[in-house]
Write a structure and sequence with these properties.
Number of helices: 17
Largest sheet: 7 strands, parallel
Radius of gyration: 21 Å
Mean pLDDT: 94
Strand content: 5-15%
Length: 369
């Protein structure tokens, strides 16, 4: 089967959508190497985390479409898709090209979340309109829709008015590096590289309002523990930093940016607790990464979070600072409980293994082709 992918984010995004794209392409090749994989992207890759020898990378050919590559991706790419005799095209981040049906290729689109509908104040008016129109077109014109969680499926049905029978829930996994146990030498090297304390709690993700980092900072104000935050800064960082400076917490909160993947995996394993009080997610890959790292998780009550965190993670109301403080402090004081939670959660997270996800996706493709 000749399978095409919208690979823009696989080659140009280092966070959630990029990780999803790379992991899906990687595991499909690992379990189904006999298929032909074409990766359509707008520009030469910036993120080199895929073995290019295993795939056919396709860029705009003409000078005109190289200059207007973002437009090429929305529709004119279909000429190349038809030329490549693609049998199935998968839009990995909520989009498919216009007029894709004319190529004869079947289509699948993955919808990660509809946060721009649920929390419109986090987006500009024009961004909301653009996202909504792209997603609405994709779900109406794709042959099948993949939702990354039951929560996202419910939102697609509710907000985009799609028949639930058209939607298949296939969970995300995580990169294999998070499943490799680090040696003591590797841990010490990471500790020295980033000047880390002996004990710390961890938060991973873009530092933006929705991720709710400020609640963690407030929660640990009177707890004897350091918080390590690994993620890209946005304007919301200024709000967090202002609180840190006002309460003289500079020695208790450490920010790390551009952490390489292997180091990030080791950070998870070194942390006493992973704390993730996000307001809303389509799924929450950092939770999965923490569970594979055998690190207990404190995250948000309700929504998608129990789907990712399982029955043994700790759940709190995201803006209940007192409750978050109590749960963090209680876990820090009880090493045995942390160990029990980590072991049970590690057993739970095996449901997100690569083989199961790869089989589910390929089975969906074969239903169409």
């Amino acid at each position: 089967m000749r399978i095409g992918f919208d690979a823009k984010r696989a080659f140009h995004n280092t966070t959630g959508l990029g990780n999803y794209s790379r992991d899906l392409i990687r595991i499909l090749y690992e379990y189904f190497p006999e298929e032909d994989y074409y990766l359509y992207t707008t520009k030469p890759k910036k993120v080199d985390r895929l073995d290019g020898s295993k795939f056919t990378e396709v860029l705009p050919h003409s000078k005109f479409w190289k200059k207007f590559s973002s437009i090429w991706r929305q529709g004119p790419v279909t000429r190349q898709i038809e030329k490549d005799s693609i049998e199935l095209y998968h839009g990995l981040s909520g989009e498919i090209p216009r007029n894709l049906k004319k190529t004869g290729a079947k289509s699948v689109v993955t919808i990660h979340d509809l946060i721009f509908v649920r929390y419109p104040k986090l987006y500009s008016f024009f961004d909301r309109k653009i996202h909504f129109n792209k997603f609405k077109y994709a779900v109406n014109h794709a042959d099948k829709i993949i939702a990354i969680s039951e929560q996202t499926k419910r939102d697609i049905v509710k907000f985009l008015k799609i028949d639930p029978s058209k939607i298949t829930v296939i969970y995300q996994g995580c990169h294999a590096v998070f499943k490799e146990e680090a040696s003591e030498i590797q841990r010490m090297a990471v500790k020295q590289k980033y000047n880390l304390p002996d004990q710390f709690i961890l938060n991973v993700g873009t530092i933006e309002e929705r991720k709710n980092l400020l609640s963690i900072v407030k929660a640990i104000k009177d707890i004897d523990i350091c918080l390590v935050v690994a993620g890209r800064k946005t304007n919301y960082f200024d709000t967090v930093q202002e609180y840190i400076e006002t309460h003289q917490l500079q020695d208790k909160v450490k920010f790390l940016e551009s952490v390489v993947l292997k180091d990030l995996a080791i950070l998870y394993q070194m942390a006493e607790i992973f704390v993730y009080p996000s307001i809303f997610e389509g799924f929450g890959i950092p939770i999965i990464e923490a569970l594979y790292s055998k690190t207990p998780v404190v995250t948000t009550k309700g929504g998608v979070f129990p789907e990712a965190g399982g029955p043994n993670s700790i759940y709190v109301e995201p803006n209940n600072i007192k409750q978050l403080t109590i749960e963090i402090d209680a876990l820090l004081q009880d090493k045995l409980r942390r160990k029990q939670i980590a072991e049970k959660s590690y057993a739970f997270v095996q449901k997100f293994n690569d083989e199961g996800i790869a089989n589910a996706i390929m089975n969906l493709y074969k239903q169409l082709v």
